[in-house]
């Protein structure tokens, strides 16, 4: 028996699948696991203004939590999520359900059109919306001029969350619409037809059949979107640099992490804040998974 088990083990290691997995494992270790371990070590290394760095389990975390900029940056991100998530989910599910209810020969074209805005992301989307929110050059400048401040700028820390939410919905909703639509198409039509025969209207079908059947997709969208929202960096950084000082350079939490690392060369505080951000995102993900029974096989 030992010889047979060792033979099976050796065959598994010689399996062609390892040739496909090995390159990914190398990249994962080199650019994922190793930097994460080094970042965790940096969390406990305190950069002293005078003298050599020293190790402390709590110093960097305490300094980060006492930073006067952290509450403001945290509230900015939370405010952004409170606006962006409901808006994006409303757009995604409204369009996906409408496309599922009216399946035509132009379904593929419709999915392509909804996905096109998602092709403009990151810094390109930020530059586009910086142009759109500049009253002097924007095609809707006549409307924006009614909301400018004393300096003639429409952008400010107060309305920046709303601008980013609209921008995030425009660039991110298309991909999720395609995903949700695919999940809706996979629902057996027999269930829908049985519900209609039992007297269910369109709303009853959506609320009691379609949405529960794609519960895991909803949870996945929430987990990924919350993680993206808390890691907001590129868009506010690009826009704030082009807004002429109207938006803070530490508007988001990730911008504050970047400020620690680049402006102060304090990688310990940057790593500590990144770890705190990771803990919050993981905690919210676990909450969503448990509340939505993400891994449950029932009702599937």
How would you describe the overall organization of this protein?
- This protein is mostly helical and 300 residues long.
- The chain has a single domain, classed as MetI-like (MetI-like fold).
- Helices cover 71% and strands 1% of the residues.
- The protein has 14 helices and two strands; from the N terminus they run ααββαααααααααααα.
- A two-stranded antiparallel sheet has the order 1-2.
- β1 and β2 form a beta hairpin.
- It starts with a helix and ends in an 8-residue tail after the last helix.
- The model has no long low-confidence stretch (mean pLDDT 82).
Give the total of beta strands. Answer: 2
CATH class: Mainly Alpha
Helix-strand sequence: HHEEHHHHHHHHHHHH
Mean pLDDT: 82
The span between the termini is 40 Å
